[in-house]
Design goal:
- Its cofactor is pyridoxal 5'-phosphate.
- One of its GO terms (molecular function) is pyridoxal phosphate binding.
- Pyridoxal 5'-phosphate (PLP)-binding protein, which is involved in PLP homeostasis.
- This is Pyridoxal phosphate homeostasis protein.
- Keywords: Pyridoxal phosphate.
- With 234 residues, the protein is an alpha/beta fold.
- The chain has one domain: TIM Barrel.
- Helix content is 43%, strand content 18%.
- It has nine helices and nine strands.
- Strands 1, 2, 3, 4, 5, 6, 7, 8 and 9 form a nine-stranded parallel sheet that branches.
- Strand 2, helix 3 and strand 3 form a beta-alpha-beta unit.
- Helix 1 crosses helix 2.
- It is globular.
Amino acid sequence: MTEEKRRDQIAAALAEVEASIAEACRAAGRAREEVTLVAVTKTYPASDVRILADLGIRHVGENRDQEAAVKAHECADLGLTWHFVGQLQTNKARSVVGYADVVHSVDRPRLVEALSREAVRAGREVTCLVQVALDDDPGRGGARQADTAAVADVVAGAPGLRLGGVMAVAPLGEDPARAFARLRDIAESVRAAHPGAGIISAGMSGDMAEAVANGATHLRVGTALLGRRKPLVR
């Protein structure tokens, strides 16, 4: 596919996504400006990131450090805000802190400690979101709901880190509206203790409207923008 054709394809998809977000905001009685679109570009090349940036996207998400570190370096001239949205091992903290402005998947104190240490070493401030396992199954990543406040407190007290809010993925097989309503309640309790933690990262290509209706401030959208991904060959 030529670059021009790919640009047209992405531009059309972005217009559809923007229309869907605008409609969801109208239905929820919210301003479109309250919601940040994070374009998740995992498995897609840096050339797609450049097209998205040229179309006005400022926030880009990745979920694998090995891929993200290279892409962020290749696109460093674009002035984008990089979001790390995947499960994160402590031994990747140094690399991720090197490029990520926001880490959405903070779910345990050991990871907080690793990120804090590397942020201080790098002289950076990294915004962290506490990932919540809405089904209380941490197997897919996330702190148990009962542990969210404690993890948030650890982030808030960690040098080099800023507590931004919470993040979650709707559990498989559950109505996302019900799941995101629980996340909204959790977000409100976190914000009561930490007034600056106003981010709710929720909603992907298939459940954007439900997320917006329940207060999401950041949507992580990949497939609807860039197409269905091919299976990753390791």
